Description:
This protein is of the alpha/beta class. It folds into 2 domains: 6-92, Nitrogenase molybdenum iron protein domain (Rossmann fold, 3-Layer(aba) Sandwich), CATH 3.40.50; 142-259, Nitrogenase molybdenum iron protein domain (Rossmann fold). It has 11 helices and 11 strands. A 4-stranded parallel beta sheet has the order 2-1-3-4, with helices on both faces. Helix 5 (96-109) runs antiparallel to helix 6 and helix 6 (113-134) packs parallel to helix 11 (245-259). The chain is globular, with a radius of gyration of 19 Å. The relative contact order is 0.12.
Amino acid sequence: xxxxxxxxxxxxxxxxxxxxxxxxxxxxxxxxxxxxxxxxxxxxxxxxxxxxxxxxxxxxxxxxxxxxxxxxxxxxxxxxxxxxxxxxxxxxxxxxxxxxxxxxxxxxxxxxxxxxxxxxxxxxxxxxxxxxxxxxxxxxxxxxxxxxxxxxxxxxxxxxxxxxxxxxxxxxxxxxxxxxxxxxxxxxxxxxxxxxxxxxxxxxxxxxxxxxxxxxxxxxxxxxxxxxxxxxxxxxxxxxxxxxxxxxxxxxxxxxxxxx
Length: 260
């Protein structure tokens, strides 16, 4: 099957297509695909990732639509693609190894296998260099990752941020919770006393979030991260999307922990 006309309905997929040099084949994307900015701005938008306009999608005559179950609720779009007989590929990454495999899957589907293997080697090299940087660290700081503030949603055991935390010699605060996400109570965060709080609110640009939105919460003044000025707002695109940009986030995280 020729894959000259590709549609991505998830931001991380769009980013992987860019890393594989395939953006010239992309004819449509979801509304939240915003990276790289110049190329995504010029493409037709098909609606939010959880409610894709199927009529507009069909009108673009795709050879392949790429979805991802990393976005909760994407199943509805996948069902609609299947009902209409539209060729599609469904990724479901939960770990760094899954991202490597997704790159291979896309490489095979789009006949760019060599590019895919080269990209995997490049990303593995970034991981190896970070591991070498933190090899001598004796402290293992506790990181509270906040995906959403109301309710408090954080990555659980089966999410890539647990592995990202481990790779920099740290520990995801809720790594012991099953599944890929966990809804926490404020009291749990306070009791677990994280050394760092990282606000990565999904779909919210970092300039819209202020550390004071966290530090001024009732009872949080006893949290070590708050007491030590370690409540940081990070670019969610580097931590919430399972693409090559996550490895950039890994490097940034290593820098943050070294500096503090």
